[in-house]
Write a structure and sequence with these properties.
Blueprint: E1 11-14, H1 28-32, H2 41-44, H3 47-67, E2 73-75, H4 83-93, E3 102-107, E4 109-111, E5 126-128, H5 132-146, E6 150-158, H6 168-181, E7 184-189, H7 194-201, E8 215-219, H8 228-236, E9 240-244, H9 256-265, H10 269-278, E10 285-288, H11 293-300, H12 302-311, H13 316-324, H14 328-336
Parallel strand pairs: 1-2, 1-10, 2-3, 3-6, 6-7, 7-8, 8-9, 9-10
Antiparallel strand pairs: 4-5
Helix pairs in contact: 3-11, 7-8, 10-12
């Protein structure tokens, strides 16, 4: 049984963009394909190359976490390519003991892209299955990769359509998993109905009558703010709040309003975006989607900046949030149009 951290660290490293060759973050090719013009694209994003890049980022998180007096935290998923394998091998290779790190993962999607970036038109990179049979299969795969380190296991992208919110067999299996392994159990949400999905999930109980889900991982950023009230309700109910896609898959860096505010305030755009999230009243933990040590070190500076925003008497935080927000439906429409690259 793993010693579960009493609370999640302030900042973690999401492995979505590091565990596989392709993802939907903007300008990914500039980072992964420009370092060696004599090396073929396939070699630049080979398993070995991606694992090396992941190790560099994970090593940086170790140092940044120590500097901020918190445990390093890595967030994986069964569908993030080889993310679990990368994390497990990195931790064992560095003689990290359970209890010296926080590790979370997700089940519900299967990675089917066969380590390719571009697929045939319409072909998915990952396939969702929230059945109890798939859970029982994927939890064993997760245990084999990172079982001794795992603290939190999450339903990946719960939706009304997937049936996860009403399937009592899955709920019972999740409750048993929590009791048998000592893990916390959470869910992630996506799409314009994130708040509504969360509200329904909060009603689900274990056989002993306690709330089943201990945490929620939600997309929330300067643009997409719709689930804020539901996140505050969940926080007040005792759930851990985890924020993903704080950079809106890189769109933060291409927004004129964000550019204007960051320049006016004298902040880097990534630090401004993450600090505004960390300063929210639902007290979230935030996942960095960084893929280089430099990006991660810059992201980590948002922790101190968020304290400045919390103590600001001129209410700069709310001013920034009001100026940057867009309609949720438009946000998700734009996101769905992003290409894997």
């Amino acid at each position: 049984m793993v010693a579960v951290a009493k609370s999640l660290p302030t900042l973690g490293l999401g492995m979505a963009a590091l565990g596989r060759p392709g993802y939907i973050n903007l300008e990914r090719g500039k980072i992964f394909d420009s370092s060696d013009a004599n090396t073929a694209d396939v070699q630049r994003r080979s398993v070995e190359s991606m694992q090396e890049k992941a190790n560099e980022a994970m090593t940086t998180l170790m140092a940044e976490s120590k500097a901020n007096n918190m445990l390093p935290w890595y967030d994986c998923a069964r569908s993030y390519g080889l993310s679990e394998q990368f994390v497990g091998e990195f931790l064992r290779g560095n003689n990290v003991k359970p209890g010296e790190v926080v590790v979370s993962s997700k089940w519900g999607y299967t990675y089917v892209a066969d380590w390719k970036v571009q697929l045939e038109s319409g072909a998915p990179h990952e396939v969702k299955d929230h059945s109890v049979e798939n859970f029982l299969k994927q939890v064993e795969e997760t245990k084999a990769n990172i079982g001794e380190y795992l603290n939190l296991y999450q339903v990946h992208s719960a939706t009304f359509e997937s049936g996860i919110l009403t399937d009592s067999r899955v709920h019972e299996a999740l409750a048993s998993c929590k009791n048998e392994n000592g893990w916390k159990i959470g869910l992630s949400v996506s799409g314009p109905t994130q708040g509504e999905i969360l509200q329904e999930a909060m009603k689900i109980t274990s056989p002993d009558g306690t709330r089943l889900f201990d945490s929620v991982q939600c997309t929330y950023n300067l643009f997409e703010q719709r689930p804020g009230s539901a996140l505050l309700d969940a926080h007040n109910a005792g759930m851990d709040i985890i924020i993903k896609e704080g950079m809106a898959n890189g769109r933060i860096f291409h927004n004129e309003k964000v550019e204007e505010i960051a320049t006016k305030c004298g902040f880097a755009k990534d630090q401004l975006a993450l600090a505004c999230l960390l300063a929210q009243p639902f007290q979230p933990r935030v996942l960095s989607g960084a893929v280089t040590p430099e990006q991660l070190s810059s992201n980590a500076k948002a922790i101190d900046l968020s304290e400045r925003l919390k103590s600001d008497k001129k209410d700069l935080l709310n001013e920034i949030m009001k100026e940057c927000v867009i309609e949720s439906e438009q946000y998700w429409k734009d996101r769905s149009a992003l290409a894997w690259n």
